[in-house]
Design goal:
By secondary structure, this protein is an alpha/beta fold. The chain is about 45% helix and about 15% strand. It comes from Faecalicatena fissicatena.
Length: about 325
Amino acid sequence: MKKRVRKITAMILAVSMVLGVSGCGKSQKSTQDSGDTAKVKIAYQYGLAYAPLTIMQEQGLIEKNYDGDIEVEWVSLNSGSAINEGMASGDIDVACMGIAPFISGVTAGIPYKMYGTIAAQPHELLTNDDSIHSLKDITDDKKISVVNIGSIQHILLAMLAKEELGDAHALDNNLVAMSHPDGMTALMSGSVACQLTTAPYIFKAKEQDNIKEAESLDSVWPEGNAFIVGLVSDDLYENQPEVYQAVVDATQEAMDYINNNQEEAANILCQKEDVTAEMMLSWMQDPGCVYDMKLPGVMDMANFMAENDFADKAPESFEAITTESAR
């Protein structure tokens, strides 16, 4: 598994090196100054953590915060790896994904930075096996679903394994990569013994009588620590500052709307998950569900990844991988 992690990092670096050699940059001047229609392509994934993105789309907040004409393209991708590839190639301008694949990408040379947290969310290690009460009870034949190798869920499990078992890679051979919804289905059917997942899948899975939390992650990743982060390409950040600022302002406005109008927000967000507004509101009011642009825990995860062979190195500093809006 260590070799596999290094291979993933090497692939990211190779893509970013190609980008550096080609010198491709989509914008060399502000579209606002030129009078042209600005364009921004935003990639995201799925889950309750992306609620601010849903509000931004539904209410046209980027368009509202940009002084001029702007065309916003939203694309849903299934993994942080796919987002990293898009950012490295210059196809994506703004993205939202977990901290861990961002750290892998930025330390491998992908030209982007964080502009803030999109959401903190509860994470739980769930199981359908009554014999599992801690990581020590997970035998070699027990499979654990995580959304991807190198994902934040993988790293959180590794952090817990380091603390409890003394080896961050102790459970690497137990891992199965599945999307959150597929992992939840596999957990409920018994195809895997455990799943490390986030909201709303932890809430949905625990509606089943046979699904329980195996062990808390609070000791390695406290409530409120950053989960999904907002990223901006260096090209957009440097060459289209008005577009960048519109994205930042829209993100903050969406968070303010969610925090100050929870019932209204629940009415919008429930459609994404096909649940009642009441159910969505209860999920949003979980203490671990936080919409705030602060970035707690980022360097803790970066240092852990570097020290345990999930990344070749840690970032030079927090300031080196963030824009001014995140400081």
